[in-house]
Design brief:
This protein has about 150 residues and is mainly alpha-helical. It is built from six helices and no strands. The longest helix has 28 residues. The relative contact order is 0.09.
Amino acid sequence: MNATETLDMTLMIDEAYTLAQMINDSREVAEYLAAKQRMEQDAEAQRLRRLFAQKKEQYEEVQRFGKYHPDFARVSEELRETKRALDQLESVRAFKKAEERLDEMLYEVSRTIADAVSPAIKVPSNNPFLEALSGGCGSGGSCGCGKQTRG
């Protein structure tokens, strides 16, 4: 690397830190952190999270034998019921919504940076809908997943 390349890299890293600070100062991050704190302070949410972890451990144990384990159906149902109860709590629902909005914002920032370099660059997302809009598998559409078929 010569001096100009080092300067360019330093400038890029400095700009990346500026962008990271802008993201940390965003409404999405503030809402996410507030929702996370509310969920962590919700005694019922914490009780159900612990219960869910226990049920998940039990499920993994019976899953080794699959549907042939004598407790498979009971443990599976208990796991689903606990998850459903957890997902119905307002603090958990608010946290998940805030998490989705933050994830969307981070995806859009990543997609913008990637597209500035090349539209063929893959940008992972936790939302399959966003990935489908950006070309699906990330291979630039060469797989044909974004093409309409006529029949």
